[in-house]
Amino acid sequence: MRRIITAVGARPNFMKVAPLHRVFKKYPDISHRIIHTGQHYDDNMSKVFFEDLGLPEPDLDLGVGSGSHGEQTGKIMIEFEEVVAAERPDLVIVVGDVNSTVACALVAAKLGIPVAHVEAGLRSFDRSMPEELNRVLTDALSDFLFVTEPSGVTNLLHEGVAKEKIFLVGNVMIDTLIACREKSRSSYILQMLNLQPKSFAVITLHRPLNVDRRESLELILDAVEQISVRCKAVFPVHPRTKKMLKTFKLEERALKIPNSIWLDPLSYFDFLHLLENAALVLTDSGGVQQETTFLGVPCLTLREQTEHQVTLEEGTNELVGLDEEKIIQKSFEVLGGKGKAGRVPALWDGKAAERIVDILIKHLH
After folding, report:
1. ∠ at Cα 330 (328, 333), nearest 5°?
2. Residue 315: pLDDT over 70
C-alpha cells in the first residue's frame, strides 16, 4: 500500500485536489489522505467547497487559522511535521501557491519525503507578491513538477530544474470545471438575482495590493460606478475585501452604487454559473483568469502582471492594472461587443489529474 498525503489550505486548493482524489480512488493499493491546514477557516470559503466538490471530510484539519505570513507558515510547519513524521507517507502533494503549499513542501523535503507540486512553474516575476515567493520556493523543493502551461516549463528550465522532473500535464482546476459544469447549469443564481445572461459584469477582489490600500479600493469603486451605468455589477465579496471596506469606512458607499449587487462568497456551482453567463469579468484572481479563458468570457485583470501567461497569449484575459481610465475604457469595449476572443489552451481537457496519477504510479515504487 502506497501512502500519499495531499495538503490543502485555501479554497483554490480544494478545486485542484478534487479531481486527483477521484482518480486515486480507482487504485485500491493507494491510500490517499487529505490534510486541511485550516488556512481558510471561514465556512463560506472552505467547508461548503468540500461539499460542492464531492470531497470527503479532510482526514485531518490542523486548524491553524489566520495570522501574519510568518506566523501562519510557522504554525502549519509545526502541525504538519507531526503528521508526516508519524505517518511517513511515500509522497506529499502540494498545490498552488498559498502559505500551506510552501510550508508543507518544506516539512516533507526536510524529512526526506518526495514532494509533488501541482501547478508548478508559474511566474509573475513580482517578488513583492507572497504567492510568487511561495511558488519559487516550492518548485525548488519539489521532485515532481506538474505544469499547466508551456511558460511553466520554460521558467523551470531557466531556473535550472532538471527536465526529467518537469511534466506538462494540463490544468486540474479545469478538470473540476468540466466535471461540475453541467451541474452548475442547474443553479438558480440568475433567477435569484433577477439577471439575464450576458447582461452583467462579475467583479472579484482579494489581493492586498487592491484591497489593503484605501486609494486602490476607492479607484476600483469609482470604476464599478462607471461600469454599472452600462450593466449590472455583481460583486461576491471576499472576507478580506469586506473587512477592508469596513476598515476604510467605504462599505456604505459601495452598497449605494446603483445597479450593483453585493453578495457573500458563493458556492462553486453558483459562482461558475454566474461566470459562464457574465458579459464581462473584472478580477485579481488567478483561478478566475483560467476559468474565464476556458469559458470564453472576456476577463480584465486588475494587476500589472500575471503568472498565467497562457490566458493572455491564447485566452480571453487582458491586464488593466489599477489604471481607472483603462479599466473603464476596456470594460466599455467589451460591453460594446469588442471583447478579446480566445481559445482553450492545449491539455485543458479535463484529464490532467489522470496524467498526474499515471506519472506518479510509474515513478513511485
Report:
1. 110
2. yes
Q: Yes or no: say if 360 and 26 are a contact pair by the CB < 8 Å rule.
A: no
Rounded CA gap, 12 and 173, in Å?
8
> What is the Rg, in whole angstroms, of the alpha carbon atoms belonging to the chain?
20
- Under 8 Å between Cβ of 163 and 109: no
Helix (H) or strand (E) holding 136: helix 130-141
pTM of structure: 0.94
Q: Which residue has the cell 488567478?
A: 286
C-alpha cell at 340: 478579446
Catalytic one of 21, 69, 206, 365: 206
Amino acid sitting at position 325:
E
What is the model's pLDDT at position 40? 59
Question: Is 117 designated active site?
Answer: no
Helices marked H in 207-266: 208-211, 214-230, 239-247, 251-255
Question: Which residue, among 15, 24, 7, 23, has the nearest Cα to 49 in the 3D structure?
Answer: 15
